[in-house]
């Protein structure tokens, strides 16, 4: 490169700004307006090989003109799933909040990290405020916390901090300084508990699965039995995970009773409220999490029920002694200098296992500022109202059968096509019923009319699991959902 080339910027600002303006219009038109338009497809489905040809994903030596790049932006949106669509019911998240999206735009534009106050002053202060508010809703007057890249990582933080709390030498000496550990979670808990045990070297064999009742809730008596069993096997019980809002049934473990068991055995109690934590905002429904204030740590994902946008997951600690910092710090002097000109207590980056960390607090803060706590409460209550309406409609319709009466906003049901009605006594009935949901799912995906998940659950064959959190959804969309299930499955 010639030396005089460094005398001028290598980026031409005006064409770049023009591209951004045109790309932003595509985002609004194709992503927001069409994405939220009920008359558009939820997904323009293509098989992988066909989609590869359409997108032309190969990377080449020479760049492409802006006109072609803008068309590629359109294609990316066109062939992606529109999770903001009023008939997207597939995940534990959906919808689009304009204020949260604006927060995402700002953080992406600023492109900063949260490890020190000097590089992220606004967001370091903002994160403290948001985390404090979440802790207050749990019922804690003090504590600590951090935003993590998803609920699975938040749960893993809980395991790591709990282990450090019991055996602080493990940070330097590793597993040689720790006896055989035992941790406990329900049979209906999220798979991240098993993954975390594997990743942290605890081992999945040392995860004791506690029995659940017919509603999918952990049975405290069996927890106590499992703890005593682990002790008899010379293991050290150090961690109990209670789930508030299981993935399939939406069950809430009885946290208050579980806390009593943990207190008797002096075991760290973590509550995975990634899914159900937002019910704390509702005066009407916060009772589902009674006892959560007795937890040592909590996972809560506002990107789910509150519609903050992926990702936004808080790991919250009742402890305010700095255990999060002690557990994870490495004290890198090139980043966490001790002789800075400001109060280095604001440098939170050594609390995490990450170095660079995305700003996840702004979208939640901006959305909260716009809606207020009351507005978020109304959003939560509306989601519950959707589920009550759907459950009542299912009871009225021939061929629809609830798996369980919903306690939360997980609506699990079977659709029994006409050919299977009255055939319950046949030996192959369950086998045939289990094939219904996958076929209907395939048909709706290829048609693009809507999107809903299905899965087996326990001894039950495949059932649909509908989740509605998007406040743009209307009763018409819910009625369409049931009608469409019937249309797509009546010939099976």
UniProtKB/TrEMBL annotation:
SUPFAM superfamilies: PLP-dependent transferases. Pfam families: Pyridoxal_deC. Keywords: Decarboxylase, Lyase, Pyridoxal phosphate. CDD domains: DOPA_deC_like. One of its GO terms (cellular component) is cytoplasm. Homodimer. One of its GO terms (molecular function) is sulfinoalanine decarboxylase activity. One of its GO terms (biological process) is taurine biosynthetic process. It comes from Anolis carolinensis (Green anole). Transmembrane segments: none annotated. Belongs to the group II decarboxylase family. It comes from the Eukaryota. InterPro entries: PyrdxlP-dep_de-COase (IPR002129), PyrdxlP-dep_Trfase (IPR015424), PyrdxlP-dep_Trfase_major (IPR015421). The modification N6-(pyridoxal phosphate)lysine is found at residue 304. Its cofactor is pyridoxal 5'-phosphate. Gene3D superfamilies: 3.90.1150.170, Type I PLP-dependent aspartate aminotransferase-like (Major domain) (3.40.640.10). This is Cysteine sulfinic acid decarboxylase.
